[in-house]
Design goal:
Layout (H helix, E strand, L loop, with lengths): L16 H18 L2 H11 L4 H28 L8 H19 L9 H28 L1 H4 L3 H30 E3 L18 E3 L1 H25 L19 H10 L1 H18 L1 H13 L5 H6 L5 H4 L3 H8 L1 H19 L8 H41 L4 H29 L13 H29 L4 H16 L1
Antiparallel strand pairs: 1-2
């Protein structure tokens, strides 16, 4: 006998674990591709041997285009009134997922002996193809959270489960990839190849394996998206945007409306801080572990330690949010991250590498504890910002608000690594020397750079959430009550 489906008051399947697992699978699919971003920089810097200055410029070019691309797609989704069998959000996600099947590998074509201009063309062409499909999948996926449920607690749960999917999608590639793509170097007689200045064994990046791994991850990502599309239920009208259908999208007006949305600005600044700090640090940390600790294969595992504390908050996030509020809990977390950043700033001053690694890990865990709360509710913060737009301005623009949020996130994702690569060049890093040929001073500089980036990340997140974001628990209650009254009418 088939199990009876429980319906809500509107006739939809009642919100439950099926929705949470499906939404988690969606971000797992996104991160099968997104988690390769740090590998992109390392691949082109170490394996393809592009100089830091040139790679910095190329990365900035493609990320600026990617950031501009997001609001265009968001507005397209908002304006699309056609009826799709799957619904418009799921349809766009499916198109993007199919493109990501091969798009993720397009940026890792392994031709290290090609001319510089050929390498530059391959980088730009491959990255644009990859990122275009990622945007097509990710923008409607992120916007969809506010349409699955209108309940604040359920949105916080969806945000938490999205973070779970994100973590799994990051942990698997970031732990396994370094183990598979880095190889320690040995002389013909079997003795290790040692950098005479640092005393660390040289390591080589296996570029062909990166390309194959990207193809495999594309297949896994597609399977995750298909699972999500089949199992998640949209309970709010997809075409509920209260705008004039004949009104053309005006990017200046959309940007102006976004900047008036204080919660959206605060949540976006916090996300930018995360990417400007943590993600921008990815390449510097990988280089540091290869050149300073001689542990490139374990670099991903060590970096993932910073995300582990989030698991401690997941079972309690609904209770935390209901008791204290999303803003209040997130701000407390940023303070813990600031403490972790201060601890990390001390590790470059410790001469003993074993002790300095322990101090680095302690700072990373404290940083991760602070990030744990924010990561669990970060997407719910944006869903609330979408409601704020409807509350204050009478317009509910899921695609536009989320895509402008994504615009600034991706701008940070591009500007951050681009600036870090330029700084690495200024600090003495020479691409042609590989990780094993850098000077001792350059390697030491990488340690300070990595620690400073984490501290910078914590400061920007505190400003975004503690100073700008204004939807505290009391204001949320007022907003939800007034919106419910309007919708009841």
């Amino acid at each position: 006998m088939a199990k009876q489906v429980v319906l809500d008051e509107k006739g939809h399947r009642k919100f439950g674990m099926r929705d949470k697992l499906a939404y988690a699978a969606g971000d797992l699919g996104c991160n099968m591709s997104f988690s390769l971003k740090n590998t992109v920089q390392t691949f082109w810097l170490v394996f393809m041997a592009l100089e830091t200055g040139l790679l910095s410029i190329l990365l900035l070019i493609v990320q600026i285009w990617d950031a501009i691309n997001d609001p265009m797609i968001g507005s397209l989704i908002d304006a699309d009134r056609r009826q799709y069998k799957l619904g418009k959000f799921k349809t766009y996600i499916l198109i993007g997922a199919l493109g990501l099947l091969v798009g993720g590998a397009a940026v890792f074509l392994p031709f290290p002996n090609a001319d510089v201009w050929v390498k530059a063309a391959l980088f730009i062409g491959g990255y644009i193809i990859w990122d275009a499909f990622y945007t097509i999948a990710n923008v409607p996926y992120g916007s969809m959270l506010s349409l699955v449920t209108e309940n604040a607690g359920e949105r916080a749960q969806l945000s938490t489960w999205r973070s779970i999917g994100s973590m799994i999608g990051n942990i698997l590639p970031n732990i396994l990839l370094p183990i598979l793509i880095w190889k320690k170097e040995f002389n013909a007689d079997g003795t290790p190849v040692i950098n005479p200045e640092t005393g660390v064994q040289a390591e080589t990046l296996l570029g062909d394996r990166v390309f194959i791994a990207a193809l495999i991850m594309g297949v896994l990502g597609l399977l995750c998206f298909l699972f999500m599309i089949k199992n998640i239920t949209i309970r709010v009208d997809e075409n509920s945007v209260k705008t004039n259908e004949n009104e053309k999208f005006n990017v200046i007006k959309a940007f102006g409306n976004f900047m008036k949305n204080r919660p959206a600005v605060g949540a976006t600044l916090a996300a930018m801080g995360m990417f400007l700090g943590m993600n921008a640090a990815g390449t510097a940390v990988t280089i540091m572990f290869a050149a300073h600790f001689g542990m490139a294969q374990l670099s991903g595992l060590v970096q993932m330690i910073g995300f582990v504390p989030m698991f401690f908050f997941m079972p309690f996030i609904k209770k935390i949010v209901n008791k204290y509020g999303k803003k209040e809990a997130s701000v407390a977390g940023t303070i813990a991250s600031l403490v972790g950043g201060l601890v990390m700033l001390t590790f470059p001053m410790i001469p003993d590498k074993g002790i300095s690694l322990v101090v680095y890990l302690i700072g990373l865990v404290l940083f991760g504890m602070g990030m744990g709360v924010y990561t669990c509710v970060s997407w719910a913060l944006m869903a609330d910002a979408i409601d704020y737009s409807e509350w204050k301005f009478g317009k509910r623009e899921e695609g536009t608000v989320y895509s402008l949020h994504s615009f600034f996130r991706k701008l940070a994702q591009g500007v951050g690594p681009s600036i870090v690569l330029a700084i690495m060049g200024l600090l003495g890093y020479v691409a042609d020397l590989g990780t094993g040929g850098q000077s001792a001073q350059t390697v030491h500089n990488m340690c300070w750079l990595a620690a400073g980036l984490y501290m910078f990340s914590a400061i920007v997140q505190f400003i975004g959430l503690g100073v700008i974001y204004n939807l505290d628990k009391k204001t949320m209650e007022q907003m939800n009550a007034e919106l419910a009254a309007r919708r009841a009418e």
